[in-house]
Design goal:
The complex is a heterodimer. By secondary structure, chain A is an all-alpha fold. Chain A has one domain. Chain A is built from 25 helices and four strands. By secondary structure, chain B is mostly helical. Chain B has one domain. In chain B, helix 1 packs across helix 9, helix 1 packs parallel to helix 10 and helix 3 packs parallel to helix 9. The model of chain B has no long low-confidence stretch (mean pLDDT 90). Classes of the chains: A mainly alpha, B mainly alpha. At the A-B interface, helix 19, helix 20 and helix 24 of A face helix 3, helix 4, helix 5 and helix 11 of B.
Chain lengths: 641, 284
């Protein structure tokens, strides 16, 4: 097991290093494909070796302790941040990186760092298993997709073409960081992987090196370094505690005192990384990066690291004020970003807000700390990783064909890109169509919140009711656009045939994954997520959500319905049967006859609730509110304990 | 009786119930306007005639989407009566309603599109209520299925007066009554022509009608949840509520979508939300 895990971390790093020096696509592409396949197989092998039992702890082969290697990595990363930061005239990021390094060095030099148990470096349980599969399968699919995507991307924007080697290298380093993060039990080791993901996302967001993307890259860096600083402080607090820096021991059950303070700081780090308000803006900025970056950041890596840590901390937060406050950061974020999303016209941004909202639900679940809600949290992680990964890749493919991200320009997609539409519909169905994945999770979350006593419980239910309805609205708008039809020219019909096979392969695989996972939700619940949730919590109610057969059938029907309608419709001739226009002449180009023989063009624009919901204001209100709750959370952890 | 029997019973009886309700509605409305009105069975005659007429297919997605609309609406009721979790029902109900929006939205006509957008707005307006209603019914009774709620010794409506009040308001939307009938119109001379259904004809329009019958029956079943002591009591209360809706329908004019959204959300938040808060604070 130790060897496999070491391979999962070291191999992608090695591939990353190789790709950095390979500049020719004809050499790079095979490397990416083979490496992705190897990583996927290794991830599966790890899971098979683990065999779905209870949690196990282990070290590196031969009992090696990475000690100084970690410190060296930290120094190297800090040096990099300082140099790049100063190059661009930024002070904040270097200052935070240095502060974090100072804490680490201080602990090391003064000998406060506790001895590491070489046999407890890694912690592998069913949650790690789920994460390893998500990173190893969805993450690598995104890498393969990028091969096709980047070719078209640079055809449209050739400026940064020469740096594609950096892009692919970073993708693999990112995977290595994520693998390390989800199997770490030693907190200082986890922090190093944590910072690797921070650094990779910084570089990926700033990839195109325009003024705009550099600004967003630093925003992401600053916010995540702040979280990293919280992580570092938590390590400092835990260093002299009897259980030391052992994550599994820390999170065995509810904690108090110094331990709770450390948990609050770690939760703070998790909230920054999962882009909860007030730290949501970095993930929105990340939308300006190439689509595989968005897909990677949103589905299988980065933000999932944040919610992964929060789920790990969940048993420790259980029942504490800190836990309740974490829940409210998540739920208020869910509600506020959903309000913003209904006013947003840029499809990628709508997807981004939807990601933040879904993560908010997971954060909300993690804060309460019951097996039932942990179940919900892991289920959302699985479904969201699949469906959102698919959605971002599909929107990337569409963007490369139609040169637009505007939701309004996605109209008549089913006529123009029929096969892409089928994939898009599978993705949307996966994200939200009533009885599937995330909605099952919403359902289970509401049921669990019903058991939370007092006013908090009522607030949670009300937030869920309104937030869920808002998601219906913005996905509904996108669906209307995708499902509308018109007659298309032969040229327009030919556009779809130019999509690369890498994109077809990966997006098709993800769509199939969405359907397969829906069909096997009962099995996943019984064999993996359920046992995880029950074993993570030593106490508390032993109930788990039950999905009965009728629900399963309806879910499958619902997720298959729209893609099937799209398949059916695309095989039928569309003959411009003219629609009702109140006696005016009209054609499908929407030019309608008007008074005095003139003609006017008509555009059918979705409602963005102008005048009722002010998106920018909602974002500010949410940021302020969550900032307040978060501050209260940290203070409660540190002072009230 | 087994759950399957209840499910089949709903599939068969609900459209008959809904059709009769529509017939009574038309007679009562006519009397309020000083007319005699059509025969009681007129809605059935209408649907029968629609099914025989030729349907103009504006595009090939409308028909499957509408069939999905009828199907999921019927399934929602069947699931409800056969013991599926109530909160889950609220989500399936929303999906069923969404498919009608998609059918109308897929047509490129300005009138259909406007109807679809407005319907999406009223879905947004009404959905929080249904989730809150189901959640609070579960909270009060401790049950999570239809039969469980009916077996509960608590009379739900007594503890959920706010939810009942909001129900009356939201039912106006679901029954497509003025002032909340913004997405569809039974009077073709109005600004929306016929909204959602502008480009639906023949059997397509019949699907919409039948789906609406199912929807009316579902609302009635929801009302029974609130008056869970006896089914006749629930039916009686539904009849009273429906009569009120018809009265309001005939004495108000259509509101703008902004007002519909604001007022429904405000009512849901104040009445239902307040009611839920009280329940939690009183520790039930």
């Amino acid at each position: 097991m130790g060897a496999l895990v070491a391979f999962l971390i070291a191999f992608p790093l090695l591939v990353g290093a190789v790709l950095l020096v390979v500049t020719r696509p004809s050499v790079r592409n095979p490397i990416v494909l083979v490496a992705s396949a190897v990583i996927a197989v290794a991830a599966i092998a790890t899971v098979v070796t683990f065999g779905n039992g209870d949690a196990i702890f282990f070290g590196l082969p031969g009992g090696v302790v990475p000690g100084y290697l970690l410190l060296a990595a930290e120094i190297a990363m800090t040096a990099f941040i300082v140099v790049v930061g100063l190059q661009h005239g930024r002070v904040l990021a270097p200052a935070m990186a240095l502060a974090q390094l100072t804490i680490a060095l201080f602990l090391e030099i003064t000998g406060r760092m506790p001895e590491v148990d070489p046999q407890r470096l890694f912690w592998f349980d069913r949650l790690s298993m789920v994460m390893v599969l998500i990173i190893g399968l969805i993450g690598t699919l995104i890498c393969v997709n990028a091969v096709g995507y980047m070719r078209d991307y640079h055809r449209a924007s050739p400026m940064t073409k020469g740096r594609r080697n950096v892009f692919f290298s970073l993708l693999f380093v990112f995977l290595a960081g994520m693998f390390g993060l989800v199997v770490s039990n030693d907190l200082p080791m986890m922090l190093v992987f944590w910072e690797i993901t921070t650094l990779c996302s910084f570089l990926l967001i700033g990839y195109t090196r325009t003024e705009e993307t550099i600004g967003y890259a630093f925003k992401a860096l600053n916010m995540n370094l702040l979280g990293g600083l919280g992580f570092g402080l938590a390590i400092a607090l835990l260093a002299n505690q009897p259980n030391g820096l052992d994550l599994a021991k820390l999170t065995a059950g509810p904690v108090s005192g110094t331990l709770l303070a450390a948990v609050a700081l770690l939760a703070f780090a998790g909230i920054t990384k999962s882009a909860q308000m007030p730290f949501s803006s970095w993930l929105i900025g990340a939308m300006y990066a190439p689509s595989p970056t968005s897909a990677l950041l949103h589905s299988s890596t980065m933000v999932k690291a944040g919610v992964f840590l929060l789920l790990r901390l969940s048993p420790a937060m259980s029942g504490s004020t800190v836990g309740y406050l974490v829940t409210f950061v998540g739920l208020v974020t869910f509600l506020m970003v959903s309000l913003v999303a209904v006013t947003e016209q840029n499809t990628k941004k709508v997807l981004a807000y939807s990601t933040i909202g879904s993560l908010g639900l997971i954060v909300g679940c993690a804060g309460i700390g019951t097996p039932e809600l942990a179940w919900v949290g892991v289920m959302i992680i699985i479904f969201h990783a699949l469906a959102k990964g698919l959605m971002f890749l599909v929107v990337g493919t569409i963007e490369n064909r139609l040169y637009t991200k505007d939701m309004e320009n996605f109209d008549t997609l089913i006529s123009r890109l029929p096969r892409v539409s089928v994939l898009a519909l599978a993705g949307i169905a996966g994200m939200f169509i009533a009885p599937f994945g995330i909605v099952v999770a919403k359902w289970a979350a509401i049921k669990a919140f019903l058991l939370v006593p007092g006013g908090q419980g009522a607030a949670m239910i009300v937030i869920m009711a309104f937030g869920s309805s808002l998601t219906l609205f913005y996905w509904g708008k996108l669906l209307i656009k995708v499902l509308s039809m018109r007659s298309v020219s032969d040229y327009e019909r030919s556009i779809e045939s130019r999509i690369s096979r890498y994109e077809w392969l990966t997006e098709g695989a993800l769509a199939a994954g969405v359907i397969a996972v829906t069909a096997s939700i009962g099995l996943i619940s019984d064999k993996v997520v359920g046992p995880y949730a029950l074993s993570a919590f030593a106490s508390g109610p032993r109930t788990l959500p039950v999905i009965d057969p009728a629900m399963l059938v309806v879910m499958l029907a619902a997720v298959l319905f729209l893609p099937l309608v799209a398949v059916w419709a695309s095989r039928r001739r569309y003959d411009e049967a003219d629609f009702y226009t109140s006696g005016r002449s009209a054609n499908s180009g929407h030019v309608m006859g008007a008074a005095l023989g003139s003609s006017r063009s008509v555009s059918l624009r979705n409602y963005y609730l102008d005048g009722v919901i002010n998106g920018a204001l909602m974002f500010r209100v949410g940021t302020l509110a969550c900032g307040g709750i978060l501050a209260a959370m940290v203070v409660t952890g540190m002072v009230v304990r | 009786m087994s759950p399957v029997v209840y499910a089949i019973l709903f599939l068969v009886v609900a459209p008959i119930f809904g059709g009769f309700l529509a017939g009574v509605d038309r007679i009562v409305s006519a009397r309020m306007q000083g007319r005699v009105g059509p025969p009681l069975l007129q809605p059935f005659y209408d649907v029968g005639k629609l099914l025989q007429k030729q349907a103009r297919q504006v595009n090939p997605v409308v028909e499957p989407l509408l069939l999905g609309h009828v199907g999921f609406m019927a399934v929602t009721g069947a699931l409800l009566l056969s013991g599926t979790d109530l909160i889950f029902i609220a989500f399936v109900f929303a999906l069923a309603a969404l498919l009608l929006v998609l059918a109308a939205g897929s047509v490129n006509s300005p009138y259909s599109f406007a109807g679809a957008e407005r319907e999406l707005v009223v879905l947004l307006a009404s959905e929080p209520f249904f989730i809150l209603m189901m959640a609070s019914v579960c909270k009060v009774t401790g049950a999570s299925t239809y039969a469980g709620v009916l077996a509960s010794p608590q009379l739900v409506a007594v503890q959920l007066p706010g939810v009942l009040l909001a129900f009356l308001l939201v039912a106006t939307i679901k029954l497509r009554k003025s002032p909340f009938d913004i997405s569809i119109s039974h009077h073709p001379h109005q600004e929306l022509v016929s909204g959602l259904t502008t480009d639906m004809s023949g059997r397509l329009l019949a699907y919409v009608e039948v789906a609406h019958w199912y929807e009316s029956a579902l609302l009635c079943a929801f009302m029974v949840l609130l008056f869970n002591w006896s089914i006749p009591l629930g039916l009686l209360c539904f009849a009273i509520a429906y009569a009120l809706e018809v009265l309001v329908d005939n004495s108000t004019s259509r509101a703008k979508w902004q007002l519909v959204l604001r007022s429904t959300w405000a009512a849901t938040l104040l009445f239902s939300g307040g009611n839920v808060l009280a329940l939690f604070l009183l520790g039930r």
